[in-house]
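ugh ok fine here u go
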Amino acid sequence: MAVDFGLQGQVAIVTGSTSGIGHALADAMAAQGVNIVLNGLGEMNAIERTRAEMAEKHGVEVLYHGADMTKPVEIADMVRAAKAEFGELDILVNNAGVQHVAPVDEFPDDKWDLIIAINLSSAFHAAKAAIPIMKEQGRGRIVNIASAHGLVASPYKSAYVAAKHGILGLTKTIALEVAQQGITCNAICPGFVKTPLVEAQIADQAKARGISEEAVMKDVILAAQPTKQFVTVEQLAGQLLYLVSDLGASANGAAFTVDGGWTAQ
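structure:
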């Protein structure tokens, strides 16, 4: 039986939502009657199909804003556009992210700057623009999609790990600042999720290592996850819906792990 989280008619921005985890989170909120502002990269015809399909499927309004997450002015414009179109902004989900893997002494400076800009600084700029609207409303929900790498490290991911640790610090600070104004700020820390990007990595790893895709999943990618199971987008969506609903009103400044036990070790 479907659960009604009481979100009908609310408005949400989800960054990095044209595909993968962000799209799944936006779709889950749309299914609850939330009007959505999508954001992300992709071919424009494909993005338009995604937007139109979500709107038709759930009977909500779905807009797209192409803000570049490395540009604070464009991020602020996205938030202003949402308010101008819908008259409110109830939910901000900071999900946009990129990755690059290399040793610290070989890590390209431009990749470091890009990852910090998109994975960390964009969340600051979006929250900065959204919080005055939420204060005026007397209610708001900010959810930052961090990672298990916001709590533990892995080699060769210095920028990503630094950014995700930073997201948790930003989450706590925002939560304390707005705690008495009806606004909450929390983070979700997923383990490995089987997105199309990860599926491609599985095939590549299997070929490179000369082992089966099943072995890659269990012994390479999921080596750190005790369940040896991928986190599903539905599981992340369930956590998100709790946090953005009134049920999650007392969750504030917290990092919710959805990682199959990875960070319990």
